[in-house]
Design brief:
Helices cover 32% and strands 26% of the residues. It has 512 residues and is an alpha/beta fold. Strands 2-1-11-10-12-13-14-15-16 form a 9-stranded mixed sheet, with helices on both faces. Helix 5 crosses helix 6 (115-122) and helix 8 (186-200) crosses helix 9 (217-228). The longest helix has 17 residues, at 35-51. The radius of gyration is 23 Å and the shape is globular. It starts with a helix and ends with a helix. The relative contact order is 0.08.
Length: 512
């Protein structure tokens, strides 16, 4: 395989189809799809999309759960040189309208349950001319995905693309205002998929649990792309339900489980005493900070080690991973992928020595082209080929990366820096605390004060004073929360990341 082919997912998927033709690529319930059938279906849909007038550079949105039609649609779009725009399946009409309009998508492929929201979303949009739906509940002018595939011949030759051509536009969650579309190139995605495959080394004998949503960068690269270019079998689950996960791991003999911390917490809370994880070789975790207390509890209960990694949408997404086997450091997100460079810098962009805290910046083939139609926003984060992540962290003398907090989340109280994660880590060791999120709130004397939102374990009760006193016993007083609010649950993104902007909105509302 030459360098051009290595920078193109089309060639990587074709290579798998040739090498593992009769092997099962995807399992979904009682259905299974071989690599050969998967690729043939991709080629048919590619032709169907081409017949609809979709051309190189056009954008096509995909709003599907983890079902075989997601990778089929994804790779078919790439095969004709078009650009895939995955959309969170929980999005509502207003959000879908914005994403379709901002990306100027010419078509959208979706599951029938989402059709009412999409119909409302396309109203007033001139760009989105085709609604392609999987299912039977269709309306006028809606194209049936299954019929489109069945009625189309196979498009054998992929439309030529350059490594720097945009392949996928992934929208960031956005801390304020509307989200931005990160343009990920064929080089970005292929490099990251190959690098992830090199780390975990999945192969034809491996079974990967596909429960991370494929519309999210983590599931898309680490599970779907890395798994399928390696000849592994992916067992698809369209929803995360602990009992279903336990059953699939046991019945299917899952060997690789990629997760986010929220999933691990739910499995830990829901598990019975006898859960069989003996088939799992690797448990990967990313998408949000994995608290050390959760890691220890999960590993102790299930008898498997968790390898934590780090990444962002703008880096395709993986930046680093802990080495498998010897060399793992709990609390660290590992070392950079081969070919990826990571530094910690001060406010002036000067590199800091080991163990000094600063902003993490990244360069390498995984860094995005930029934000779609947002040159100023791109300039703010891409400087001299380095992506400024906005994450505060440090790198130890062995090159291991530690994430401390988001730059924007840093609390400056009376001139002292308070890292919310440090307070959160401590509170998670409290025997009554299940989850916690810490934010800074305005204060007329200190500038900012520390506020903790706490979710208690089922059946447990605690007072605000108990939480505050616990902190005062274990850390410097200036770091301790002045305010404590108890919630039934924390607001989270699909990847399990706590949405602190919503907590700050709660605080603002309380003050008005």
């Amino acid at each position: 395989m030459n360098s051009v082919q290595e920078n193109n997912l089309n060639y990587l998927i074709l290579n798998s189809a040739r090498q593992y033709a009769s092997n099962i690529a995807l399992s979904f319930g009682s259905d299974s799809v071989s690599y050969q059938h998967l690729y043939e279906t991709i080629c048919r849909l590619a032709q169907g999309l081409h017949q609809l007038g979709i051309r190189k550079g056009d954008r096509v949105a995909v709003m599907l759960p983890n079902i075989p039609q997601f990778p089929i649609s994804y790779y078919a779009i790439l095969k004709i040189g078009a650009i895939c725009v995955p959309i969170n399946i929980m999005s509502k009409a207003k959000e879908i309208h914005y994403l379709l309009g901002d990306s100027e998508s010419k078509a959208i492929i979706l599951w029938e349950s989402f059709l009412p929201e999409v119909i409302k979303a396309v109203a007033g949009l001139d760009s989105c001319n085709h609604i392609i739906t999987l299912g039977e509940k269709l309306v006028d002018d809606v194209i049936n995905l299954t019929e489109l595939i069945a009625s189309s011949s196979a498009l054998d030759e992929a439309v030529p693309v350059l490594p720097e051509d945009t392949a996928v536009i992934l929208y960031t969650a956005g801390t304020t205002g509307y989200s931005k579309g990160a343009e990920l190139t064929h080089r970005n995605l292929s490099f990251n998929a190959l690098a992830c495959a090199e780390i975990a080394k999945p192969g034809p004998s491996d079974v990967i649990l596909g429960v991370l949503p494929f519309y999210h960068s983590f599931g898309q690269t680490v599970v779907m792309n890395a798994g399928l270019i390696s000849g592994a079998r992916i067992v698809l689950l369209s929803n995360f339900e602990p009992d279903a996960v336990f059953k699939v791991i046991k019945d299917e003999g899952v060997t690789i489980f990629a997760s986010v911390p929220t999933m691990l917490r739910m499995l830990l809370d829901a598990s019975a005493d006898k859960v069989d994880f003996s088939s799992i070789k690797y448990c990967l975790c990313g998408g949000a900070k994995l608290e050390t207390s959760l890691m220890q509890a999960f590993e102790e209960k299930f008898g498997i080690l968790i390898n934590e990694g780090y990444g962002l949408t703008e880096t395709s997404p993986v930046v680093s991973f802990n080495p498998f086997g010897f060399g793992r450091k709990p609390g660290s997100v590992g070392v950079p992928l081969k070919g990826v460079n990571v530094k910690v810098v001060d406010e002036n962009g000067k590199e800091l020595p080991p163990n000094k805290e600063g902003e993490i910046i990244v360069s390498g083939p995984n860094v995005m082209k930029g934000y779609l139609n947002r040159p100023e926003a791109t300039k703010e984060v891409l400087k001299q080929d380095w992506f400024y992540t906005g994450d505060i962290g440090k790198i130890d003398e062995d090159g291991y990366i530690y994430i401390l907090d988001r730059k924007k989340d840093l609390i400056i109280k009376g001139g002292f820096n308070v890292y919310p994660r440090e307070v959160e880590e401590l509170l998670l060791y409290h025997p009554k605390v299940k989850e916690v999120a810490v934010i800074g709130v305005p204060d007329s004397i200190q500038g900012e004060e520390v506020k903790a939102y706490v979710v208690l374990k089922d059946g447990k009760r605690a007072s605000k004073d108990e939480i505050i006193n616990y902190c005062q016993e274990h850390m410097a007083l200036y770091k301790c929360p002045k305010y404590v609010v108890f919630l039934r649950q924390l607001p989270k993104s699909p990847a399990g990341r706590v949405l602190k902007r919503r907590l700050k909105a709660f605080t603002a509302a309380e003050e008005t």
